[in-house]
Amino acid sequence: IVKDENNQTLPKGKYGNIFVKTKWMFSRYFGDEELTKSEFDENGFINLHDQGYVNDKGELIVFGRTAEVIVRSEDYFHPAWIESVIRTCPDVDDVIVVPVPDALLQNEICACVVLVPGSNCNEKHLQEFCQK
């Protein structure tokens, strides 16, 4: 299930925290009731600390880990999503997206890109490619 920040279950298409419950999963943290209370809801679902939503087909779409979210001004970005877009460029061999502290925006977003050997790709070309 997907829940909002108030622990309320969200309808399909709404973005939030992913909670799961299965027969094989443990039901609590042994010897740590406070951690159990903070991670499990009242119905035994555990917070995976992943963000996503359930689409109209009932498929769970995962954006990434909550801890990896980059906060830039009032916006939240999942590095894995940005990386997946950049990786579609045929000139890109590898990429990682990281936050860079910024006094005004809280964080700026930096994409560290490794180009395919022999590529003539530059920053402007990559930005234009990603905007398409």
UniProtKB/TrEMBL annotation:
<dbReference type="Pfam" id="PF13193">
    <property type="entry name" value="AMP-binding_C"/>
</dbReference>
<dbReference type="InterPro" id="IPR045851">
    <property type="entry name" value="AMP-bd_C_sf"/>
</dbReference>
<protein>
    <recommendedName>
        <fullName>AMP-binding enzyme C-terminal domain-containing protein</fullName>
    </recommendedName>
</protein>
<feature type="domain" description="AMP-binding enzyme C-terminal">
    <location>
        <begin position="82"/>
        <end position="131"/>
    </location>
</feature>
<dbReference type="InterPro" id="IPR042099">
    <property type="entry name" value="ANL_N_sf"/>
</dbReference>
<dbReference type="InterPro" id="IPR025110">
    <property type="entry name" value="AMP-bd_C"/>
</dbReference>
